[in-house]
Amino acid sequence: MDRHHLYLISDSTGETVQSIGRACTVQFEQVEVVEHLWPMVRSPRALEIVIEELEEEPGLVLYTLLDRTLAETLEEYCKRRGLTCVSVIEPFIEVMATYFGAKSRDMPGRQHELDDEYFQRIDAMNYVMQHDDGQQTGNLEEADVVLVGVSRTSKTPTSIYLANRGIKAANVPIVPDQPLPDILFALNRPLVVGLTEDPRRLVDLRRSRMRQSLGDTETAYTDIAAVRKEVADARRLFGRYGWPVIDVTRRSIEETAAAILRLVRDRERRHEEGADADLLQLGGRPDAAPLLDGTGGAPARIESGKP
Questions:
Q1: Where are the alpha helices (H) located in 131-223, listed in sequence order?
Q2: How many domains does the chain have?
Q3: How many whole angstroms from its chain centre is CA 232?
């Protein structure tokens, strides 16, 4: 079966472009389509992150970006790389503008009601962009999930995907010879998840990234022995603190995010069961129930490198 990557890029929740993409792909039973959903792309930095993944896994691009500067940047990149890039909403807006004799307002997300869920997604996306790649670690306690891993383990795209599910996700990189922030080891509320990947796959991804900026220069960043040590050191760190581990080697972003969401739900369920048990032990007096510390114990480890 043929396998192709489909990028669904939106300046809102992504529901429109995803619905259109899926309505079309179901017509091709002989093709395996790997979806890459990128919602809330409203800044040059957000688009830059999308383009980085496109560079690593090229594919067909469908988008709903009403900001012309962002749309033109995406189109110009795709043209240089020889990728097909299609706006799925602009042709209809142009037809309606002609028919109505009126100019559109070009405001992202106007098709969605401004309900609580929508604002939760927006809030989560803002949090992700402010806490990407180890930024603003001082308030990591506000996160729902904190992803930790060496470079190129899909921390940023996974965080963005989680934000589209209303999850506030921060990510912290593990960099050789650089200490991790102390607050990471004292978190109570967030679920900390370690991401790992096969060293050979990491070397391929890193070399691709390096070629974009420095050509074919070889450094410790792409040396297989050094990368193996990075991965092994990270795994020891995850084990030391009881953080669940997800191997992203053979997982799409969506599959990684789904595994994290399962961990979040399992953790919440354990908290609820623990609270119920504490209440029963205390004779059912709600005012006597102790406050949960938010750690919930060490979640079960996930090894997902198998097909």
A1: 155-163, 199-214
A2: 2
A3: 23
> What is the rounded distance in angstroms from the CA atom of residue 271 to the CA atom of residue 100?
55
Same domain, 190 and 251: yes
d(CA 163, CA 129): 10
What range does the domain containing 86 cover? 1-112
Tell how strand 169-174 and strand 191-196 pair up.
unpaired
| Nearest CA among 106, 91, 111, 95 for reference residue 16 | 111
pLDDT in tens, 122-167: 888 889 989 999 999 999 999 999 999 999 999 998 998 898 888 9
Distance CA 143, CA 169 (A): 6
pTM for the whole structure: 0.65
Taking 70 as the pLDDT cut, the residues of the chain under it are: 1, 105-115, 212-216, 275-307
Helices 224-240 and 199-214 cross at an angle (nearest 10°) of 120
Element (DSSP H or E) covering residue 62: strand 60-64
266 plus 146 within the same structural domain = yes
Residues 238-273 have pLDDT tens digits of 999 999 999 999 888 888 999 999 999 999 988 888
DSSP string, 227-248: HHHHHHHHHHHHHHTT--EEE-
- The two tokens of residue 16 are 């429109």
